[in-house]
Amino acid sequence: MITKFDEVFDRIKSHPKKQIAVAVAHDSTVLEAVIKAEELNITDYILVGDKEKILNIAEESGFNVKPNKIYNEPNNLKAVDMAVELVKSNRADILMKGFVNTDDFLRGVLNREKGLRTGKIMSHVYVLESSALKRLLFITDGSVNIFPDLETKCSIILNSIYLANVFEIDKPKVAVTTAIELANPKMPSTIDAAVLAKMSQRGQFSGMIIDGPLALDNAISPWAAEHKGIGGPVAGRADIIVVPSIEAGNMLCKAHVYLTGGNLAGVVIGASAPIVLTSRADTSQSKLNSIATAVLMANMERNLSIKFGQVHY
């Protein structure tokens, strides 16, 4: 089981080098991350964006950017489309969001004709490196699905379990979190959580361990779970936190970074290729962690029949 990002870098040292296409690459933290990834010999890069800005930023920051690896496209939307096409045509293995709004980036990814759709729900997973827990915690979905319904949450859970499997967690424990631990008709997210837990108990997720509703404290703290009298195999031991809305996931992960100084990665699951999606304000280290996570994904064979064929309605 991988418990920190250093172990991810160790795992991918022997993996084949991947090509990453960066959409709207004129940003210092993005350039720092992709150049470091190249130095580590885990990815090569194609930078799509305003060439003049990219070269100016590189010169100011002392980065050795190769001009022949820059595809000049000053328009952000067109740059996203160009980067998506590089991945779709197999000229790149991984897509990365650069200095562009997430909505504009996802518009290109989700384009029905030119995007990276597979027919499955795409969702975002943040991977948090927690010094308090001494392990990784997977948070979903804080960037793509705004207010997922029950069916979408099923796909979100399956996507996150796939990523946990990539991190060598064979049977990840999934906590469907809300503000309270009891099903309350006035809080629809608690009803969804209770239904998902019951589906898991009845074998509709083929043995996957899912419980809820759970509050965040009793999902990850054994002491909090015991103190509140909450039992079960997930309470206090969750590997995956399913949040009720995009706001909850986004704020939780940004609190991890800005209140605790924590480290993270962010990727999109369910597309035809791995996608690196982080906040524009994330550090170059977080973006490098995300690239490494995407490389790990790209080199792992995904068994779709297991991951997506075992939810029975």
Which features characterize this protein?
313 residues, alpha/beta, 12 helices, 41% helix
Describe the protein's architecture and organization.
This protein has 313 residues and is α/β, with parallel strands linked by helices. 41% of the residues lie in helices and 18% in strands. The protein is built from twelve helices and eleven strands. The protein has an eleven-stranded mixed β-sheet, sandwiched between helices. Helix 2 packs across helix 11 and helix 4 runs parallel beside helix 5. The longest helix has 17 residues. The two termini are 31 Å apart. About 3% of the residues have low confidence.
Topology:
Elements (H helix, E strand, L loop, with lengths): L4 H8 L5 E6 L4 H12 L3 E7 L1 H11 L8 E3 L3 H13 L5 E4 L4 H8 L13 E8 L4 E6 L9 H17 L6 E5 L10 H14 L7 E6 L1 H5 L1 H6 L12 E3 L3 H15 L2 E7 L5 E2 L7 H15 L5 H5 L5
Parallel strand pairs: 1-2, 1-4, 2-3, 4-11, 6-9, 7-8, 7-9
Antiparallel strand pairs: 5-6, 5-10, 10-11
Helix pairs in contact: 1-11, 2-11, 4-5
